[in-house]
Amino acid sequence: MNWTKLGKIFDPGDYILVAGPGQYAQSPQVLVLADRARVYFSTRTRDVMGKYLSHISFADFDLTFRRVKTIAKSTVIPLGGLGCFDEHGIFPMNVVRHGEDLFAYTTGWNRKVSVSADTAIGLAYTRDGGMTFEKVGTGPILAASVHEPFLIADASVAIFEGVFHMWYIYGLRWLDNCPEGESQRVYKIAHAISSDGVSWTRESMPIIPDRLNPDECQALPSVIEYNGTYHMYFCYREATGFRNDRTRGYRIGYAYSTDLKTWNRDDAQAGIDLSDSGWDSEMMCYPHVFYCGGEVFMLYNGNEFGRHGFGIARLSR
Amino acid sequence: MFQWTKLGQVFEPAKGGGAPWMEEYAQAPSVVVFDRFIRVYFSSRRRPDERGQYVSRLGFIDLSRDDLFRIAGVSREPILPLGERGTFDEFGTYPASVIKMDDDFRVYYAGFTRCESVPFNAAIGVAVSRDDGTTFGKVGPGPVLPYSPDEPFVLGSPKVRCFNGVWYLWYCSGSKWVFNDGKPQPVYKIRMARSADGLHWTKHGEDLLENVLESDECQASADVFSLHGKYHMLFSYRYNLGYRIAGRGYRIGYAYSDDLYHWTRDDSQAGISTSPTGWDSESVSYAHVFRLNSRVLMLYQGNEIGRRGFGMAQLESVDGETVIV
Question: Which CATH number applies to B2-322: 2.115.10.20, 3.40.50.720, 2.60.120.1440, 2.60.40.10?
Answer without folding.
Answer: 2.115.10.20
